[in-house]
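Review form for a predicted model. The reviewer records the input and the model, then writes brief findings.
Reviewer: anonymous (R2)
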Amino acid sequence: MLALTSVWTTILLAAAVALGPLAIDMYLPALPAMGDALSADTGQVQLTLSIYMAGFALAQLICGPLADRFGRKPIMIGGFLLFAVASVVCALATNIETLILCRFLQALGGSAGPVLGRAAVRDIYSPRDAAKIMAILASIMALAPAIAPTLGGFMVVGLGWPSIFLALGGYALVMAIVVAVGIPEPMRPENRQSLRIASLWKNYQAIASDISFLGYTLTNSLTFAGLFAFLSGSSFVLIDFLGVAPQHFGLFFACIVAGYIVGNLTAIRLGSRLVPDQILVRGLVVSVAGGGLMAALAAAQAYSVWAVILPQTLFMIGVGMVLPQTMAGALANFPRMAGSASALFGFTQMVVAATVGALVGYFHDGTSLVMAAVIATCAIAALASYLLLVQRHPAPGFEPA
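Model under review:
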């Protein structure tokens, strides 16, 4: 077993947390091909993405309290095994309805990685240190999404879209084994919570009524929704509208991930001389600039790949700075029920993201305008949430300088 504060433990937690995003990023290049193979329209295919997010959100409300009672490891291992089985069934689907159902089941298992990875970091580190560790974890984790769309694009062309789900199932099975034998249980025995309905309701009520938690969670969710708006619309904008080949989609997507990594590394570097609030507000301003630029170019009908990729890369630099600070700030007040707090945080994040993704699919007009406008709106709303809630009710140790 590795030491909890070992860099290898952080790397393994990042690999575990990456499973949820991988289930999105890896199959993005396959969305148009899946629609053709299953005789489904754009809205139905995008529903496989939104239903995954909805299931991901709901499952977190269950696995968070279970992890507060039984520990992080057993729930994470069980989730990975469920994800592996659901992935195989996804690969065997012969109609869009079966695929949508199996994506929901896949999400139920995949939610265990992110929600319990965040909780484990809070178990191990203090709130201020947790912000730095989450930025490091996010940087490592971003390597997988950087590779996944490119790999997914080549797999679609060479092996067909079902191969993507088989690969995801294999990854989940490997991670279940790695977590079982490589990572110690991070939760202290004295922090175990009851599973009685009254106790669960009391815990969630205490978390949801914390203004600081609400502020950080809403700021994070709106920022993440801007990212999800791109995930939901990018394959149709880049492949169908702008003519990018599916096998080249991942190369452009890597630019987006590179922006996110730059934001994470900037947050880590600034963390030694700035308080988290200063990093957060700078990241929000960068995201607003990127989203606003993309919307302005789309409104001016400047339709090109780089009119989408470069502004989104700038937006993602801001996202990389914002997400670690807001994650750590949201969990700062709940060391004894970090699993439940992380679950409610993740639930809110996914509900907002799924709603935004569905809107992008519903209003898609065949160009980049709708996607760009939604991304800009999310960035502005996140900044407003920070100014109205976070700045007035900061978490302990996260006060504005």
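Findings: The chain has a mean pLDDT of 85.
Further findings: The radius of gyration is 20 Å.
Recommendation: see findings above.
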